[in-house]
Amino acid sequence: MILKEEKAIVVFSGGQDSTTCLFWAKEQFKEVEAVTFDYGQRHRLEIECAKEIAKEVGVKHHILDMSLLNQLAPNALTRDDIEVEEGKDGELPSTFVPGRNLLFLSFAGVLASQVGAKHIVTGVCETDFSGYPDCRDVFIKSLNVTMNLAMDDTFVIHTPLMWLTKAQTWELADKLGVLDFVRNNTLTCYNGIIADGCGECPACKLRKRGLDEYLRSRKGASHVRF
Helix 16-28 vs helix 45-57: angle between axes, to the nearest 10 degrees? Predict the structure, then answer.
């Protein structure tokens, strides 16, 4: 559904997923603004990266102070002395920030109400997620209802990547004509390295595996003859 006359807020980190969502939103909505949350991230470059992308894409960019989250939820994304580790035996990864998406989306809703936007776009994904409970579809649907009740409004939270694999997310970026831009200008790496990253952290491995899978499928498709 194309909502050309509507306005949207994109929850924007400057990473692969949120940048793909930003371009998706620009295709869907008449007006788009982006919001980035400063919660004392381990790598401040994330915020600078988000600033640069928003400027290049030409969208109004809000940066909100969420430093309280850093105080409440020490983890590998906010502390240099905590190792980045994948979850083992059903445990959550050390990169999980309790309440992050709950707070980010709630504050995005408040911002949306101030700027006249009815749509909130986020890049959460249940298909290739890292075990984060606040990336699940059931959470998003629940929060959407709660947000509308709390503010007596009719916001819609959009999750264009919810059921996509990482390879399919790269495919979406390609269809939007921005695969190279997303690959070269976004910061997904837990070690703070732009573009293809360090290649060793869980985020980089997931990103590369998805990219390799998509490029193989695209190459295979190009060899099909009709």
Answer: 20
Q: Based on the structure, what is the number of domains in the chain? A: 1
The response to whether 177 counts as a known ligand-binding position is no
Confirm whether residue 196 is marked as ligand binding: no
Q: Is 15 annotated as a binding residue?
A: yes
Tell whether residue 127 is among the known ligand binding residues.
Answer: no
- What is the full per-residue pLDDT of the chain (226 aa) written as tens digits? 556 789 999 999 999 999 999 999 999 999 999 999 998 776 688 899 999 999 999 999 999 998 877 676 555 455 455 454 554 555 544 455 678 899 999 999 999 999 999 999 999 999 865 667 888 999 999 999 999 999 999 999 999 999 999 999 999 999 999 999 999 999 999 888 999 999 998 889 999 999 999 999 998 776 555 4
- Domain at 86, CATH number: 3.40.50.620
- State the burial class of residue 104 (Cβ atoms within 10 Å of its Cβ: 0-12, 13-18, 19+): buried
Closest CA to 207 of 125, 91, 85: 125
22 is in an annotated binding site: yes
